[in-house]
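Annotators were shown the component list below and the corresponding predicted structure, then asked to write short factual statements about the assembly.
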Amino acid sequence: MTAAPHSRTGARVDRLPLARFTTLGVGGEAEVWFVSDHAQLAEAMAQPYRILGGGSNLVIADEGVPERVIRLSGPLAERDLMPDPALSDGDQIVTGWVGGGVPLPGLVRALQKLGLGNLEGTVGIPAQVGGAVWMNAGTRYGEMFDGLHTLEIATPDGLRVVAPGELRWGYRDSGIPRGHIVTRVRLKLQRSTPEEVLAKMTLADTARKGQPKMKTPGCAFKNPGGVGAGRLIDEAGLKGARVGNALIAPEHANFIVNLGGATASDVHALLDLIRQRVAVPLELEYELWPGGALGQATSAVTGFSWPVGPE
Ligand SMILES: Cc1cc2nc3c(=O)[nH]c(=O)nc-3n(C[C@H](O)[C@H](O)[C@H](O)COP(=O)(O)OP(=O)(O)OC[C@H]3O[C@@H](n4cnc5c(N)ncnc54)[C@H](O)[C@@H]3O)c2cc1C
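Structure shown to annotators:
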């Protein structure tokens, strides 16, 4: 077996099927750059690229994507939850750096064990920290920006370290432009007890009862004007509809699941069917890579030179 090649700055570069990096388990090949420091990131970002997090909001084409796909790894996927004494104050804890590539579910579990609150509402979101911050993912019980103190973002002009107040963030939106990469964050947490944090997490988790447990990229469509998209799809008689190995979940009609071996074309066909049968216009919740007739095309970011060196 030959070892995967490395870039000039030492990033591991490998042509891989993207399906393995997504919660739907669908997606063809691309050149994947595993970057573990800022120098590698700058090199990776010098050509057209996409940043892939937990792949929990993506339907990636069976042909893959032509751009390089960046994955944060090594120290950019590690977490330092030690309170920073210079920034913490009483029960308000500010942690060390948490990498954008850190899986959110494990982080939320670790915070619960430490009795640290503010991110309980994000329990059950199968994202990475960077992707969850970029979308300001959350539930009615809380969202990512509830627990952020500082963000480090790789931009076309170099690294920026900003406070949340410097961004125009809002509902499921961080205000961070597409293609800018959330590399690390410091968390702002409230000292509590493991029991209290668990109680809040249980509340948020209970709201997920009834969601399918199979491979899925989450909700397919946004709720139009207060009406549940799932209810509209159900009323159109589409619960349980199947194309190839993709299925509209019998448990909840706003979820498309992969029964095993589904393709992106199967999923697109089901999305088309829903759009044809439901009278109300529906807006897609997840992103289609590399873009498509149904979703908003996601244009790849072109390369740039990075004048600011790593810290
Ligand atoms: C079972 C299930 C339940 C879900 N429940 C919820 C929920 O309750 N609430 C909710 O809000 N969402 C939910 N989602 C959707 C999804 O988890 C969120 O949208 C999440 O924010 C996606 O993060 P990700 O890391 O998986 O990003 P990806 O799916 O990998 O990417 C999504 C977008 O984020 C960008 N991105 C990824 N990483 C970074 C980074 N480091 N810096 C900048 N941009 C980045 C990508 O380029 C892409 O544009 C759910 C999904 C599933 C499968």
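Statements collected:
1. Residues 23, 50-58, 100, 125-128, 130-132, 134-135, 137-139, 172, 181-182, 216-218, 287 surround flavin-adenine dinucleotide (CB under 6 Å).
2. Confidence is low (pLDDT under 50) at residues 293-299, 303-311.
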